[in-house]
Amino acid sequence: MGSKVLTLPPSNNKVILERDETTLSEAKNVFRASSDAFPSWRATPFSQRRDILTKALCLIQERKHQLGEELTLQMGRPISFGVKEIEIETMQKRADYLLSIAEESLSPLPGQPEQGFQHWIEKEPFGPTLLVFAWNFPYLIIVNSLLPALLSGNTVVLKPSPQTPLVAERLVEIFTEAGGLPKDVVQVIHTGNAETLRELVRIPDVNEPVRAGEPRGGNDPAYVRTDADLKYVAEQLVDGAVFNAGQSCCAIERIYVHTDVHDEFVAEVQKELAQYKLGDPADKNTNVGPVISRAAQASVNAQIQDALAKGAVNATPSNPTFVNPAAEGNYVIPTVLINLNHDMVVMKEETFGPVIPIMRVSSDEEADPVAGEKLLKVLEAGTVFINRCDYPNPDLAWTGWKNSGTRHTLGPRGFDPFYKLKSYHIREKQGWLFLSISLE
């Protein structure tokens, strides 16, 4: 028997889904089929491609409650948030934006006028495209890449996380039901093996894989100045640190607070966190669920213990739901840490869990080498939030710098990763024409 890809819900770690792992031979067949489907889809008029995808998006909205419940079961997001992830204001908002800019984004680019010549640039699809996407925001992540890829004329193979296989499978079902999509334009493969994935991307028919959801995570800081509305800021930063159990690539990972407002800010954070409920994600009153795995649970708790061993103080407020969470789940108690320094792992590395590290600083300059308006220009980050956090807008590029990666999705250039440029140089001659092709 072949290998299996298993899905264990973080709330109880009991296998709920089992899929046959795609072998390399099977994957090659999938990509051959994707290559065979490419000419037909590429030749499909843009308006028809757009209509097919629009109909599929409507079907997703009709099934949002089913999809939200399945999402909660697979990856542990509280049901109160699971449906919201794919509602009109989130997934649909992104889809609407991408649809609104698609035609202009994919239109040819004219060259400069020149007597006796025609020249322009066409935007051509790559062909079979592998989309690898994560479990933490699967519908939001995949729409960023799936729509531009398909609207550009590419065929797509989805490689979901083993934690959320139903997301990819439901998308294929819905696109098929919507009708009009040629066979094998969107397919799914399942693998949880890194070596298998490395072999898959070496298949000749596969273009460079797109890891939907790039950039990768980071160690996102926030800085609270003396002029901040502390109650508002505490609400925003607790949400930014704890939403989705802290499992977001743009979660708040560390908070620097000016010493003049430090104690008052910590008190506001404690008031806010005391209202949260940790527990079963299927409970509509829960707003903090488990982290994704036992390994993730151990990693987050290790960072907390490292900080405490080095002198940090646990300032977590009293909350009855934080006491003795269910042992069968991967629960991490949302934790406030103070009295921190940069020798502690929690201040240096991404935690990816519901931890709120708060460090006292004596000046703006101590929090960052520059302050005020200068800060915006010199920050070496692809995305900057002021007075809010963790809520990307579809009209802005979702991107990172340095080790977070430099690719992007969304924004006015959101289609760029899914086409290649083809330049046309035509000299107008009467009676004859010769063709020269550069293969470089």
The biggest sheet amounts to: 5 strands, mixed
CATH fold annotation of the largest domain: Aldehyde Dehydrogenase, Chain A, domain 1
Mean pLDDT, to the nearest integer, reads 90
The CATH class designation of the largest domain is Alpha Beta
The CATH architecture assignment of the largest domain turns out to be 3-Layer(aba) Sandwich
**Tally of contiguous helical segments:** 14
H/E element order: EEHHHHHEEEHEHEHEEHEHHEEHEHHEEE
What does it look like?
- It is globular, with a radius of gyration of 24 Å.
- A five-stranded mixed sheet has the order 9-10-13-12-11, with helices on both faces.
- The protein is built from 14 helices and 16 strands.
- With 440 residues, the protein is α/β, with parallel strands linked by helices.
- The longest helix is centred in the first third of the chain and has 20 residues.
- The chain folds into two domains: 232 residues, 3-Layer(aba) Sandwich (Aldehyde Dehydrogenase, Chain A, domain 1), CATH 3.40.605; 173 residues, Aldehyde Dehydrogenase, Chain A, domain 2 (3-Layer(aba) Sandwich).
- The mean pLDDT is 90.
Brief descriptors of the model:
alpha/beta; 14 helices; 5-stranded mixed sheet; Aldehyde Dehydrogenase, Chain A, domain 2; 4-stranded parallel sheet; 440 residues; 2 domains; single chain; Aldehyde Dehydrogenase, Chain A, domain 1; EC 1.2.1.3
